[in-house]
Give the backbone structure.
Amino acid sequence: MTKKPLILGIETSCDETAASIITENNQGKPIVLSNIVLSQIDVHKEFGGVVPELAARSHMENIDLIVEKAINKSGKKINEIDAVASTAGPGLIVCLSVGLSFGKAFSTSINKPFIAVNHLEGHALSPKLSFDLDYPYLLLLISGGHSQFLNVQGMGKYKRLGTTIDDALGEAFDKTAKLLGIEFPGGPQIEVLAQKGNPHRYNLPKPIFNKGGCNLSFAGLKTAILKIAKSIKSEQEKFDLAASFQRTIEEILYKKTKIAFSEFEKHNNLKEKKFVVAGGVAANNKIRSVLINLCKEKNYQSIFPPLEFCGDNAAMIAMVGLERYKLKKFNNLNHPAIPRWPLDEAAAFLKGSGVKLK
Ligand code: KG4
Ligand code: ZN
């Protein structure tokens, strides 16, 4: 029997230090042997957001321990690893450099190939860690750093259908939470507070709701929240604002996803249509149920990867590494860290490019 590839994945693009070992079974289905994530929430809490230099320092202090843990938990030996895959971008350059340098050094020390991975490609392939999922599928990636619709057509074939032209959705949740006086990272608390409020009390803007295809925008929303938050006097008003924000986001995602479905269908003639939602914001239960209902309405299969593979993790980086190993597509050790690295190069220059939205 031929040996199945054993891949070490490393992720340090923002504020999670992560390592994972994966392999595959005889049917080519990935098996996650370990998936270790060290969150830096405690490091950044007092600053109300991620401080890049502190994040990089924390990655440096922990990366060897996290990789060691991942290897030990997998039950495999270092010399059984066939390739090392590290996130090379997009992300904070000082953070990316830690995982990238560590991965390069590790691959050299075991004399095995090195693979530089685009973090967004990791998110795009993350559902494959849990589901038998054939291409193509539509992906909505909503996290603290990214918000985009991607037509995932195959390994290495990604067409961006829409993206945020300003803030990421998780960032909008976090900033709203901060304005409501909730401690970092407050994003997940919004839906908890929202349950106690009236979602129709405040009428918030929905930027580019009626234009721009399935592109997204959240910056105007934050400005409106800032104004209202200043005049809030009671706890109830705070709950009402959280609920109104949550409702507004649901309405934006419902409408923009519907447009993304039509865009996706223009590119693919399919009997079975699949919609995957990944990234930290996919944990939001109300957003989930709105999108699940839309899928039922439009005859799409809805797929939500487990949360451990939705937020930043190294199993998804190893997943890309596994696919690239099988294609023998490796990288040189001089591969740079790339802070801005869109998956779909053709769509790269929307933001800040002066391109008008239709
Ligand atoms: O994917 P992720 O773990 O890390 C990044 O790549 O950013 O996403 C983190 C983001 C944060 O902005 C956090 O506020 C948001 O996901 N988030 C949520 C919820 N849980 C996490 N946003 C809204 N509702 C939630 N329940
Ligand atoms: Zn991410």
